[in-house]
Design brief:
Blueprint: E1 5-8, H1 21-24, H2 26-35, H3 42-49, H4 54-60, H5 65-77, H6 90-94, E2 100-105, H7 108-118, E3 126-130, H8 139-149, E4 157-161, H9 167-173, E5 177-181, E6 195-196
Parallel strand pairs: 1-2, 1-4, 2-3, 4-5, 5-6
The structure holds magnesium ion (MG).
Length: about 210
Amino acid sequence: MMKTVLLLDLDNTIYPVSSIGDKLFKTLFATIEKSGEFEGNFEAIKAEIQRTPFQKVAYDFSFTKKLLNECMNIHIHLTYDDPMFYFDDYSVIRNLPHKKYLVTSGFTKLQNSKIKQLGIFNDFEEIHIIDLQTSVLTKKDIFQKIIEGNNFQKNEVLVIGDDINSEIKAGSELDLKSVLYDRKGKFLKTESIPSIATFHEIHRFI
Ligand SMILES: [Mg+2]
């Protein structure tokens, strides 16, 4: 009997943030660059914003309170309204009959607009957006909530995402099977964190 349920990340797991980044963050990047109220390299900040929750980037690069507030005001109202495209191989996941749950961190309005533009709303049983502005919950908390709320056994859950410090870490802390979606082969292959370069390999885990 097929039982595995999939807990999926959104950004850089279902679609590449780089495909929308320059356009989406145009005003934000300009505001940061113009202010100069940060420490470190501006290009590094741009790269980090596209793969890490914004609040963490602001902290890591010592944004001033003033700059942080300006960025927050931009972010809170930000949406992406142009066409978006998921990774080709996401269609493999999409076509699986397994139950899927989307767990993503970010600004609520923005994450909702991406889900809409990607046309993936109906792929999921539940969609959880962890908005760091309004929530102190972590992916680990949400995973636990999904498991308890649906009476899943831990061994029937598979976590899939691109971030070893976020969903993959949460998955291992909860003793869930986790697989790193590592399209570019950035990470060293290890026994403890299995990885795949394409969703065509997902069948090994479900
Ligand atoms: Mg991600």
